[in-house]
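Give me the 3D structure for DEKNAAC101851.
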Amino acid sequence: MSFKSIGLPGWLIDSLHAMRITVPTPIQTATIPEILKGRDCIGGAKTGSGKTIAFAGPMLAKWAEDPCGVYGIVLTPTRELAMQIADQFAALGANINLKVALVIGGESMIEQSNKIKENPDFIIATPGRLAHIISEHPDDVNGFKRVKYLVLDEADRLLTDSFGEALSMCIDSLPSPSKRQTLLFTATVTDSVRSLKEKPIEEGKLPVFLHELDKIDDVVIPEKLYLGFILTPFMVKEAVLHNLLTSEDYEESSSIVFVNRSETAETLRRILRKLDIRVTSLHSQLPQQERTNSLQRFRAGAARVLVTTDLGSRGLDIPTVELVVNYDIPRDPDDYIHRVGRTARAERKGDAISFITPNDLTRVLAIEERIGRKMEEYKKITDNQVIKKSLKATSKAKVEARMDMDREGFNERSKMHKRRLEIEGEYERKRSH
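Predicted structure for DEKNAAC101851 (433 residues):
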């Protein structure tokens, strides 16, 4: 099977080859021909399977035949995913003067509104920011009435209550479903996603095409992915992490460390940096420019360790990650699946090691039941090693990191950020009643 045989034009195949993408993945092989036929599509496949090109490829192919104003809008739940998708569109259209507008929070809304007014070919956006522009600058989005494609990426998250109002406002500004194609892609085809297939077919429309490579209920963790755990007393987790990241197995590895809270991510970043590990972080308390810089540093190898909350658990495609550490066990077993999916991608090997404290046992059992596999104890990190090599150094670094954070007002900023979200939530609730 080739990109030519599934219907993509030569110029786009050349762009894919320039990106070292020469053979379509199963999700691309299944969905691209159907999208080119004009069908709405629901595509379900695990992260790293090529979903972005599965919708970008046919959209660009059709756009090249008849470019007209804003041709397609891609909505995705996080800024980081939006940036990554925009990068892929820009790379695919590098030789044809493709105009792509990125519309996300944390950037100038006036500048973004002006870009939309110029009718770019494609808009990649988070629903909240795009809805805000539609509400505040309705005259700037008149070009949306000619949109041919709407894409919901990570559709399972977008179709939850937290995005409901913003998503509705975005969709209401577009042509009716009979005059555009709607493409939903996700790693998790939930009931809310699947139910869209059952809606009545509008006159002149083909039936919705549903292709599900990996049903979330039957998810299989890749065989090449090692799942390990370390029994870790809460008070020495930082020391165990340092010992693991500097061990013979992983001292050169590109690693992602997942935590449950922004404060933990920031504290670990500072501790590891003081211990001479090339580290960066990604969490909600960082300004948007710092998030962008962090991802760029990690992708480029300038940092070999990324400490992140679940902001980094979905969709981010960094193929070289060799180790995932669950420093904190996630509350939802599906979040574990998405986290460990950052490694062992594209047939590569990878390791995922979880730190388990006595309070985590219930969560771990739920994860093992969910994935149908048992984690193995990783025994290469011993108490003596931790005490001898890491405990004193990490304890000192932790004290210094906390002092630095207090001096810079990190916790106060966190409280202000939390309060701002509460106020925004109150405002949205009042608007909805």
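Residues 10-217 form a domain with the Rossmann fold fold (CATH 3.40.50.300). Let me know if you want a second pass.
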